[in-house]
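Quick one, tokens below:
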């Protein structure tokens, strides 16, 4: 469902590089009540995302990959859909990874190098 090669991402997002909400790659997104009339008015990329979240709840990264929409464009389009209360964005969370554990892994890798 990706756009024609000559259509730049900023055209799909109205020139915006970030959405109204900052969405992390692991943020879960799900659908609310599906509105076929609304869906028919969406650009193909936004419609693909809108349709997909009404089938399965997925992370922002998974939606991007499954719908063939770049991650940056996916974030903006999902943010717009959430602002219109068309989809549900999971709770704002920080990274699920313990930063102390990540630091220990990095230190261990440095010792191996």
């Amino acid at each position: 469902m990706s756009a024609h090669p000559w259509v730049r991402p900023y055209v799909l997002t109205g020139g915006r590089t970030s959405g109204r909400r900052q969405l992390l790659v692991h943020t879960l997104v799900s659908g609310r009540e599906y509105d076929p009339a609304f869906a028919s008015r969406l650009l193909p990329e936004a419609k693909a995302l809108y349709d997909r979240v009404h089938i399965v709840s997925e992370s922002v990264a998974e939606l991007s990959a499954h719908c063939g929409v770049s991650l940056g464009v996916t974030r903006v389009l999902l943010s717009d859909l959430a602002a219109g209360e068309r989809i549900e964005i999971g709770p704002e969370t920080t990274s699920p990874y313990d930063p102390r554990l990540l630091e220990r892994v990095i230190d261990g890798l440095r010792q191996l190098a």
